[in-house]
Amino acid sequence: MSCDLTQRFVSGYLDGELDLVRTIEVEAHLKSCEFCARELENQQALREALRRSSLGYTAPASLRNRIQTSLDAATATKSPERASAWHGWQIWRLAAAFAVLVLCTVTAWQLLPGLHAPSSNQRIAAEVFASHVRSLEANHLMDVVSTDQHTVKPWFDGKLDFSPPVEDLASDGFPLIGGRLDYLEGREVAALVYQRRKHFINLFVWPDASGSSAAPVLESMQGYNLMRWSRGGFHFWAASDVSAADLAEFVRLLEARISPEAK
Amino acid sequence: MPETPKRERFEQTVLPHLDAAYSLARWLTRNDQDAQDVTQEACLRAFRFFDGYQGGNMRAWFLTIVRNTCYTWLHQNRAPGSDEVFDEGIHSTDDSGGPSPEIQALAGADRETLRRALEELPEVFREVLVLRELEGMSYKEIADVTSVSLGTVMSRLARARTRLRLALGAAMGKES
User: Fold this and answer.
1) What pLDDT digit, counting tens, does each position of A111-170 carry?
2) Which residue of A has its CA nearest to B33?
3) Which among B32, B40, B107 has CB closest to A45?
4) Contact A232, A164 (CB under 8 A)
5) How far is A111 from chain B (nearest CA, A)?
6) Which domains does chain B have, with CATH numbers?
7) Longest C-alpha distance within chain A, in Å?
8) CB contact under 8 A, A46 and B164
9) Which of A129, A193, B122, B145 could pair covalently with B86 via S-S, beta carbons 3.0-4.6 A apart?
C-alpha cells in the first residue's frame, strides 16, 4: 500500500473500521514507513486529547422538566382529538378497514399453516440473514479485529449490557477473527466473526430471558445456512455460506466449548 | 387507552439518550438556550413518531431526529448572509496548508483550546467528530444518523481530524 492510500485509511484504521484485507495492508505499510506511523501516532494523540477533555455536555435539569411538561401537554391534548375522530363518516372507514383486516387475518390463518405459529424465529432469521449479508457488503464485518478471544471479549465490555461467551476455535479450523456490535430484535447484540477457509461465519449472541435450552435448528435462506439454538441463558444464531455440514460442525464444537456439561 | 404505555415506553427507551441529544444539539447550535429549545422540539417530534419506530438502534434513531431538528432550526434562525455553507470541493485545498502540531503539542492542548477549535470547525466535520469521539458511535451508526454512506463517513472523519489538528496548531501557535 502506498503512503497516499495509507494516509487516507489511517483514520479508519484507528477507529477499527477497516475490513480485514485493508487492515492487514495498512499494518504492513505502517511497519515499514516512519512517516505514516507518525501520522497514526498523531491521530491517536488527538483522540486521547479529545477523550481526556470530556467535551460532551449534560442535559440541564431545567430541560428535563420542560420536556416532561411538554410531554404532559402532548399526551393530554391527544384524547379529545381522538374522541372527535370517532364522529361522522370516519367511523365507517375505520370499521370497513377493520373488517377487511379481520377477514384477511382469518383467511391467512387458515390457508397458511406456517402462520399458526407466527414465528418470531422467521422474523429473526430474516434479520440475521440481512445482517450477515450487510456485514460482508458494507465492509463492516468487524469493529474489533483480533484472533485473540481475550481481546475480543473485553472489547464488548461497556458496549453491551451482557458479556457474551467468546471462544476461539482455531485449532478446529474455525479461527475467531473479530467481533462487532449489531442490532437484532430491537436490541444490541454481540456479533462474533469466525472464518472457515475463505468463508465467514457471523455468530450473533444475546441474552435469553427465559433461560430455556433449545437444540440447534438449521434452516437455509437464499443459499446461506442459518442455525439457531439457546443455551445457558443466551440465544445464538450463526449465519454463513459454508455448507450445512460445516456449520453444524461449527455449532457442535462451539457448544462443546461453551457448555461442556451439556454434552 | 394506549397513551400511558406509550409515554412510559418513550421515557424508558428514548429519554436515557437525552444527554447525548442535548450534547449534539449544543455542539451544532453552539449555544445553550438554542440547544435546549432544539432538544425539546426533537423530543416532541420523537414522541410523535414513536409509533413508527421499527426497532433497531434507539440512540441512532433519536439522534437522527435531533440532528434534523437542529438543521431545520439553524436554517430558520441564522442571520441572513451568515449561512455557513460548506462545499467540500471548494474548501478541500486548505487541508494541506501549514504545519500540523505534533504529539507533544496535542498532548498538552487544554480543554478550552480543544473546545474552541472543535466549535469553530464547519458543521459537517464538527458533527462527525462529535458523534465519533464524544458519543463513540460506529461508522454505521454515524452513516445512519447523517444519511451518508460509510465511505463518506470515513473520508469526512479523516478530513475532520486533519482540520482539527491544523486549527489546534494555529491556536497554540498564537498562545506561545
Assistant:
1) 655 444 446 787 888 888 888 877 776 666 777 777 777 888 888 887 888 889 999 898
2) A63
3) B107
4) no
5) 28
6) 3-77 (1.10.1740.10), 96-175 (1.10.10.10)
7) 78
8) yes
9) B122
Query: In which region does residue A36 sit, left (phi positive, over 0), alpha (psi from -120 to 50) or beta (all else)?
Result: alpha
Q: Residue A202 is placed in which grid cell?
A: 457471523
Q: What is residue A155's predicted lDDT score, i.e. its pLDDT?
A: 84
Beta-carbon contacts of A214 under 8 Å, excluding residues fewer than 6 positions away, are A228, A229, A230, A231
Question: What phi and psi values does residue B148 have, to the nearest 5 degrees?
Answer: -130, 175
| Nearby residues of B13 by Cβ (< 8 Å), 6 or more positions away | B58
CATH level 3 topology of A120-262: Protein Transport Mog1p; Chain A (3.40.1000)
Q: Is A119 on the interface with B (CB under 8 A)?
A: no
Residues of chain A with CATH 3.40.1000: 120-262
Joined together, the cell numbers standing for residue B58 give 434507539
Mutate to test the interface with B, among A34, A39, A42, A44 (most CBs of B within 10 A): A42
